[in-house]
Amino acid sequence: MLFKQQAWLRQKLLVLGSLAVGSLLYLVARVGSLDRVQPICPIEGRFGARSQAEFPLRALQFKRGLLHEFRKGNTSKEQVRLHDLVQQLPKAIIIGVRKGGTRALLEMLNLHPAVVKASQEIHFFDNDENYAKGIEWYRKKMPFSYPQQITIEKSPAYFITEEVPERIYKMNSSIKLLIIVREPTTRAISDYTQVLEGKERKNKTYYKFEKLAIDPNTCEVNTKYKAVRTSIYTKHLERWLKYFPIEQFHIVDGDRLITEPLPELQLVEKFLNLPPRISQYNLYFNATRGFYCLRFNIIFNKCLAGSKGRIHPEVDPSVITKLRKFFHPFNQKFYQITGRTLNWP
Ligand code: A3P
């Protein structure tokens, strides 16, 4: 009798369990496919106006699925053909600035269903050896995407490399260019911190930031120091402006992207003529990391690697003041040229 009751109970539990698992799976599939059942995602402007019916809105989770597998090389040519996938040259490039938040910007834009990111920094335009391989080599480095999607790559070295503006212009004179900047002194310290970490990893010693940033002979800011030079944004931008009109650039406030990413991303969506699709749901603050992380759907979320968001060494306040004073006129010029005032000290 007892045995019969136990068997009956086990059977009941099994049925209930399967029901619960089934419902959960349904819920997951349903939420994951919500984007797909929403009607259409129009892309207008430079990327070519399309009729609404032409643009199938891809689910965010889909990007984590098939396209992700393609990126890893896990899918066949047949599947590429079947899904009408192509490797497209970028329609927008994050050209810099190093340590401005270029990775965060790329990853966050990739939340948009119409954007596909090139995961690696390609270094096509700044590296002569790569550039000599030709544009087809570059295109083949791009991820698979649907023809209606736009590909974005980021290589921060582009911003400061002499030859790059002309080379990009030759590829596409109407390309959209994104520059993410941070307060110049903070950016320089972040740049230094990255190099310092590399040295420490190799058990090498390195100079203090103060020693590199200030010329010991003149006690003035050392403009030969690369981390300082990179932060003179206006100097680099002026070289770009010989090839592209200012309307083709969009300045992203990297400091605001850290604390308040959504409004910055919405400005980029607008600049790229994309329908607003990134929402607060896609970004959540992770107190342990101290940064916003990305949520694709109820299953997939991710934070940036630990190499993003390093603790900076303490820097002598008088050096910080000197650097800020040094950057000030260049910043004013930068605001004037770009039309974006960032209220840096
Ligand atoms: P720090 O390491 O100085 O904090 P890049 O990707 O261009 O190398 O920029 C790195 C910077 O991105 C980091 O600099 C960090 O502050 C910033 N960042 C912006 N948003 C971030 C995010 N959500 N997660 C981690 N780092 C972020």
Descriptive tags:
345 residues; alpha/beta; 5-stranded parallel beta sheet; 3-stranded antiparallel beta sheet; binds adenosine-3'-5'-diphosphate; EC 2.8.2.-
Question: How are the SSEs ordered, and which strands pair?
Answer:
Layout: H1 2-32, H2 34-37, H3 60-71, H4 77-82, E1 86-87, E2 92-96, H5 102-109, E3 115-117, H6 128-131, H7 135-140, E4 144-145, E5 150-154, H8 164-171, E6 176-181, H9 184-201, H10 209-213, H11 226-230, H12 233-240, E7 249-253, H13 254-259, H14 261-271, E8 283-286, E9 291-295, E10 301-302, H15 317-338
Parallel strand pairs: 2-5, 2-6, 3-5, 6-7
Antiparallel strand pairs: 1-4, 8-9, 9-10
The structure holds adenosine-3'-5'-diphosphate.
Adenosine-3'-5'-diphosphate is lined by residues 98-104, 156, 190, 257-258, 291-292, 304, 308-310.
Q: Any overview of this molecule?
A:
- The protein is built from 15 helices and 10 strands.
- The protein has 345 residues and is an alpha/beta fold.
- The protein has a 5-stranded parallel beta sheet with strand order 3-5-2-6-7. Strands 8-9-10 form a 3-stranded antiparallel beta sheet, with no helix packed on it.
- The longest helix has 31 residues, at 2-32.
- It is globular, with a radius of gyration of 24 Å.
- The structure holds adenosine-3'-5'-diphosphate.
- InterPro entries: NST/OST, P-loop_NTPase, Sulfotransferase_dom.
- Keywords: Glycoprotein, Transferase.
- This is Sulfotransferase.
- It is an enzyme of class 2 (transferase).
Bound molecules: adenosine-3'-5'-diphosphate
Strand order of the largest sheet: 3-5-2-6-7
- The separation of the N and C termini measures 82 Å
Query: Into which percent range does the helicity of residues fall?
Result: 40-55%
Low-confidence spans: pLDDT under 50, at least 5 residues? Answer: 25-61
> Can you count the beta strands?
10
Order of helix and strand elements from N to C terminus: HHHHEEHEHHEEHEHHHHEHHEEEH
The major sheet is characterized as: 5 strands, parallel
**Helix/sheet category:** alpha/beta
EC number: 2.8.2.-
Domain Sulfotransferase: 90-334
Protein name: Sulfotransferase
Family: Belongs to the sulfotransferase 1 family.
